[in-house]
Amino acid sequence: MNPLTIMYWTRFLLGVAAALVSTLLHGFVPDFNLLNGVTIALLVYIVSYYAYKAAFLAKVEKSSKVFTTGVGAYFLSWLVTWTLFYTLLNPQG
Description:
93 residues; mainly alpha; 4 helices
């Protein structure tokens, strides 16, 4: 399988996982807000960048592809999933 395809789909799944972590932390930490959720999402993305850089840098044509592949899918899946989980776990607001 192409390394860029692997990066894309695993980042999509990491976005879902980061949204789940953000939602669960909202239930346990009383002062958890949108900025904290965005920070978790950025942290997971940066960690994935360094992991993919170590694993796939020699296999892609440009090093910038490691950073940009799947960025839209990651943040969109994080946002949609976090909104869905938050709404399901906090229906009253």
